[in-house]
Amino acid sequence: MVGPPLLREVAIPAERKREESGLMGGTMWKQNPEAEDKSVESFTEASHIGKSFVIKGEVSGSENVYVAGEVEGSIELLDSNLTVGPEARIHADVQAGSIVVQGRVEGALYGIKRVDLKASAVLVGDVQTPLIAIEEGASLKGNVRVGKDIPTLPKKANDTVTPK
Known about the structure:
The chain is mainly beta. The protein has a domain at about 40-145. About 5% of the residues lie in helices and about 40% in strands. Strands 1, 2, 3, 4, 5, 6, 7, 8, 9, 10, 11 and 12 form a twelve-stranded parallel sheet that branches. Residues about 5-40 and about 160-164 have low confidence and may be disordered.
């Protein structure tokens, strides 16, 4: 009795993988493999805010952050990147190096480098960034400002300290 042929994994050199995937030569649009998308998803290390977490207040830091839960308040990651997972809910103004949205955000996004709205993203708020990518299927209700000179998040009136 003859069965189906056995399949086995074969290691393919990285250069050949890029050629086969169309990242090098032979395609109508030539892409530079060194300029591949550097969205937050590609970072291996990130602090994870899990599905069961609900954070009310200010989230700030210098590490990449992945949000799967809920955040209400403000998020400031000036030297880092933020990924909003597909089931995450954010009700906050966000400022980060790069921002990838897969879930729901209500608030302004200030992407210092870029903002990516994935197909599952729902954004109700304004976006300011030098570079934006919006996948088909993403929902955006707000204004978009794309340019090099992006202002930082405006400070709230109650954030200022007056000397006595």
